[in-house]
From TrEMBL:
InterPro entries: FtsZ/CetZ, FtsZ_C, Tub_FtsZ_C, Tubulin/FtsZ-like_C. Keywords: GTP-binding, Nucleotide-binding. This is Cell division protein FtsZ C-terminal domain-containing protein. Residues 140-200 form the Cell division protein FtsZ C-terminal domain.
Amino acid sequence: MLFLLTCFDDPACLPVFEAMGASARECDVFTIGIVPDPTILRPDPKVVSSLWNVSFQALAAPPPAGGGKTTGWNGYAMRHLPATVVDIILHHSLICVDFADVRSVMTAGSMGRMGVAVAPIESAPLAAIGAFKRLQGQEFRIDTASGFLVCVRSSSAITMDDFDRAAAVIHEWVPSEADLIISLVMDESMGGNVKATILAVT
């Protein structure tokens, strides 16, 4: 698996990005391209096998008030997406997902977005709803998406009832014909909160 992260600060960056994606594709390497601003990149699904557009709008927190810089939010998004994918595969928990599952869902399309939201454990469904609304806030068409990879992260304080209620909301939002994988990652640093990260591809 290969992650390509770029901010396109250099005009020469896009050709390098495309060349690396093409080389990886020729070698049948599962590749995820991550960019902070989807308006900069040409919508060419041939660049990489699964191309992810990540912007600060995908985050749980809003951008700074007064039109401040969003570099910090973009940086978080570009770190959080690959970390989530890796955790889903490697972090053995109550619900385990392997690499083949992740690859299958994320290559169901070629362009994707990320939505993240946090809520108290007792309101776990609100985290899922918030993450879907973050996707909608990026003008992402949930009803036409072909694949969803969902990571529910919480401490050991979460119960299966809490998780089931969040999962029920997720199933309500996801189109019946779309591929869906929901994972549960235990992270004691979450305390009394639950974080829902939704990677949706179309």
